[in-house]
Amino acid sequence: METNKRLTIAIDGYSSCGKSTFAKAIAAKLGYIFIDSGAMYRAATLYFIRKGLTNNGLADRNEIVKRIDEVNVSFIKNSATGQNYTILNGENVEREIREAPVSGNVSAVSKIPEVREKMVMLQRSIGRNGGIVMDGRDIGTVVFPGADIKIFMTASPEIRARRRYLELVEKNMEADMKAVMKNITDRDRIDESRSVSPLRKADDAIVLDNSNLTPEQQMEWFMKIYSEMINES
Prior knowledge:
Elements: E1 8-13, H1 19-30, E2 33-35, H2 37-50, E3 54-55, E4 58-59, H3 61-67, E5 73-77, E6 84-88, E7 91-92, H4 100-103, H5 106-110, H6 113-126, E8 132-136, H7 139-143, E9 149-154, H8 157-170, H9 177-193, E10 206-209, H10 215-232
Parallel strand pairs: 1-8, 1-9, 2-8, 9-10
Antiparallel strand pairs: 3-4, 5-6, 6-7
Helix pairs in contact: 2-6, 8-9
């Protein structure tokens, strides 16, 4: 489903609410590009691994700051499969950024403020002409404050913990419900109280509590909002 007007759609909210899954589903439904912010930080990390500036969870902050402008990240969409591919300086790195070396170093790189500033600049550049969906914790407040549709997703902590627990079990990973619940509540506290871009609902965001909604019901809810927005324009 496509129209001549291509919107910018921002999805924020708490952890384990299914933001990325929902954002990808919307992008597929509308034929939009899904901006995977996590993939962007992973691509930057891969670049600095290759340059020998991050290893074993440690990053050479000074050198990374000096060379951050060497990093360009974008996305292309496979029209046949609908899948997005992450492009680092012209190279498809979708597979490599998901591997262990990047996973072990992305936290050290992504917490550098100048890296974040660069990624936000790139995200805004990608979204300049609309036709994008992006999820995170400050997309509607910091990255795209002028987004056409802003959604803030939430669900009860108990349901989010249950979802996370089942996800771990499905992946045959060790899981303890009490530990998962503590992780969820700790993450909420950290996200809401951090000094840089804390998690908060944009004043004009629409709240989606998906505690008791199926993916199909969520999409039905969204398409009503989308149709109203398109018809008004």
